[in-house]
What does this fold into?
Amino acid sequence: MLWSFYHIALLLGTILSGSYFFLNRSNPEYRKVNAIVFIILMSAILSETFWHLIPKTTDSKYVHYNLLFVYLKTLVMLGLFHQLPFSCQLQKRVLPTTAVFLGAGVIISLFVQPLETGVQSYTYLVGHGMILFFCIIFFKDILKQNRYQEVNLLSLPYFWIASWILFSFGESYIFFILSYSFPEIGTFGVGQTVHWVQFFAGLMYLSFGLAFYAPFIFSKNYSF
It folds into this structure.
């Protein structure tokens, strides 16, 4: 497997996230979110490992990749939003949304895209669409919460995590739709677009690890 910026950023993000979890015990709120982020990063590492190590002729290659990248990653991402501070109590919608996602996954697996025949693009689009929805609502909500009116958002790990999820998932979501409408894009016909998708995904994973160090870098309150 050739190491790219994506793989290096993913590994660094995982190391930084794991280091924070084991070395910093002063903030239990961030530790819980950090644990979920660490699981997200580990699922990405495992999916990449299986994808490159399992022979292409093996049906289990797609099964492992779909279960780890399409399902587990999406489920843990939804779990992450369940832990974020919404004033509008949006957390209560995470479990029903998770049930809808799993139900859609079962239907797609049975009738449209079986697990073993390829990457489940439709399930991917459903799950990532749900994550983008929660991400957009989170930004709208956090800007309205009184508890964050005087807080420097750059000092909040939540802000960095949600920002990069919105940016990376939004960009890859658009690419996924375009690659099905214009197949030449998915086969590197337009400036090797997929490499940009991986590049921004790598930045997202790296930011996941760095986000929890933001309170040590940026002032908690605005200074005028």
Observations:
- Residues 186-191 have pLDDT under 50 and may be disordered.
- The radius of gyration is 18 Å.
- The chain has one domain: 5-216.
- The chain is about 70% helix and 0% strand.
